[in-house]
Amino acid sequence: MSYPPQLYLKDHGVASATFRSADVQPDLVIGVRSRVGYLATGASTEGQFGLYRWDLAAVPHNPVAHFHKTFSESFFVLEGTVSLYNGERWRDATPGDFLYVPPGGTHAFNNTSDAPASMLVLFTPGAPREAYFQELADIAASGRQLTDEEWTELYARHDQYIVR
User: Fold this and answer.
1) DSSP code of 95?
2) Do you find a cis peptide bond into 125, omega within 30 degrees of 0?
3) Looking at the DSSP assignment, which residues form a beta bridge with residue 30?
4) What CA–CA distance (Å, rounded) separates 65 from 31?
5) For residue 60, what pLDDT is reported?
6) With b meaning 16 or more CB within 10 Å and e meaning fewer, what string describes 51-87?
7) How far apart are the first and last CA of the chain?
8) CA distances from 2 to 5, 6, 48, 133 (A)
9) What value, to the nearest 5°, has the Cα angle with vertex 92 and ends 125 and 39?
10) Cβ atoms of residues 81 and 157 within 8 Å
11) Burial 91-104 (b: 16+ CB within 10 A, else e)
12) DSSP secondary structure of 14-48
């Protein structure tokens, strides 16, 4: 394997780094269960990746196993215990545990513990996941109940395909 093509062609570096302090409030709250920090979006990384901090309250739900066709997704547990589904079985992941899911890989996550948990979620390349997360937050805030057909349409718009 070799390095990819150069993206920066000048002979000198520039000051272009972005810093985000740990005390920044979450960018999005989804119901009572999830708080999401947009550490680096696909837009801010010119499509190279999206990195999010996902904080989960101790509120289990019924996660839906799914897959994506255009990007991979990775999970790195920072705090607590996150239940991760790798397409075959659920595993209780603790700080330092990591799950990589290539495009087409079935996966899901949940917090079934009695304590909050936190993880990093990485999408590569940087898909525009913020619109999907915002739709989930809006649905949770409104209390609206979607039909199976409405969920299928929402998921399809955001490259998310349910495994039943």
Assistant:
1) T
2) yes
3) 34
4) 20
5) 77
6) bbbbbbeeeeeebeebbbeebbbbbbbeebbbbbbbe
7) 37
8) 9, 12, 17, 35
9) 35
10) no
11) eebeeeeebebeee
12) --------TTPPPSEEETTTEEEEEEE-TTTTTTS
Instruction: Give the pLDDT of residue 42.
Output: 95
**Per-residue pLDDT for the chain (164 aa), expressed as one digit of tens each?**
999 999 999 999 999 999 999 999 999 999 999 999 999 999 999 999 999 999 999 987 889 999 999 999 999 999 999 999 999 999 999 999 999 999 999 999 999 999 999 999 999 999 999 999 999 999 999 999 999 999 999 999 999 999 98
| Residue with the two structure tokens 């075959």 | 88
The residue length of the chain stands at 164
Q: Tokens 């993206």 sit at which residue? A: 7
Of 105, 114, 60, nearest to 87 (Cα)? Answer: 105
CATH topology of domain 28-162: Jelly Rolls (2.60.120)
Residues 106 and 90: their CA atoms lie apart, in Å, by 12
